[in-house]
Amino acid sequence: MRTALVVAISASLSLAVPAQDVVRHSTPGSDFPIARAVEVPANATTVYLSGAVPSVVDTTADRATFAAYGDMETQTVSVLTSIEKTLADLDLTMGDVIKMQAFLVAPDGEQLDFEGFMKGYTQFFGTAEQPNLPSRSVMTVAGLVSPGWLVEIEVTAVRP
Amino acid sequence: MRTALVVAISASLSLAVPAQDVVRHSTPGSDFPIARAVEVPANATTVYLSGAVPSVVDTTADRATFAAYGDMETQTVSVLTSIEKTLADLDLTMGDVIKMQAFLVAPDGEQLDFEGFMKGYTQFFGTAEQPNLPSRSVMTVAGLVSPGWLVEIEVTAVRP
Amino acid sequence: MRTALVVAISASLSLAVPAQDVVRHSTPGSDFPIARAVEVPANATTVYLSGAVPSVVDTTADRATFAAYGDMETQTVSVLTSIEKTLADLDLTMGDVIKMQAFLVAPDGEQLDFEGFMKGYTQFFGTAEQPNLPSRSVMTVAGLVSPGWLVEIEVTAVRP
Known about the structure:
The structure is a homotrimer.
Chain A: H1 2-16, E1 23-25, E2 37-40, E3 45-49, H2 72-89, E4 97-105, H3 114-121, E5 135-141, E6 151-159
Parallel strand pairs in A: 4-5
Antiparallel strand pairs in A: 1-2, 3-6, 4-6
Helix pairs in contact in A: 2-3
């Protein structure tokens, strides 16, 4: 009888605690490709990734210079490709990203290349193939660990 | 019999998994209006908001200047009012905020106006009407996406 | 009968919802002492700490100068000791930290002392006694609230 009870209970548990979805709230009246807020249900597994940094694109250049890692768009694509790879290794995709912080660098005396950052970002988020948008904060920092880096991106994902 | 079992189980589930509260730990010996740490129980729904930025207060001023958005206190109140509005749209309040990061700008050659930031912050947190305090980190960044912004604030809330 | 059912259900619940562990993913081919990603199960209690800052080490020095708080390694050890103390007060340890953000300052005209930061960090993470590694992002900010601070660290922990 006890065994029968446990079986019945296990069956009912999946009824009582159904899987809940991540809810991505958009900003009213805006088509800017970020979520206004992302709501993560209690039954979610959360995966916190370390900040990802760009790869060298020109091995002949001094690694302490931006030339070694490319311009802002190049570095953004490099960083997001690295994140996509990490997520894939964990059986996750860019569509599972719920939160992003982007730490950008403006070289001395130059304005921040936010447009270059967005050109990279929009290749991965808000596309027909991958419409899911994260909540996001972006700031210009004084620098990153390597003087050749223009961008570091930290994301959090939720296992679907 | 199976139906009766499921009903009994549903009743017992709410007994077995009671709603748990967010716990806000204060700093011993300090009345600084932030939590030392905030503890979020496993059964919480977490809502991650994008970084919020200030609104224009002087439409005649150049939007690339601080004059368009006001001083630090004005911009902080503007950003927190925007966050309060977003939370309200999601049926949440400032009392549900559990974590905050503030990214502040010190104009070239000037000191950070931390006092102005706190004057804005304390209108929303640690008041008689809204005593709940978030955990918080504050830093001076090199800049934000618009050169007119002095402050961007990112918060995380928990659905009560 | 109802009472008996509830007892049986409570017993089965702990079978049906076993405690799940935090999973720390390392970076393939790297021994750098951070996790590539940390996975937090749904049944975890998450504890968000406020950014921690250094303590004065030289009370005779002007508090608006780095001399009052010491060099990067000294300040990093001071901040992490403060975090360890906060965690202990909450019945947690450094081994429960799952995420870290470090906001570092490079004094005017000087390079960031990342080596000094790592010398402090590796006294607390990745040791024989405390092998658990957090996900981590590090950036150089333009400044912190006090002009004497070289480092502020924010961590998130999970209650074991």
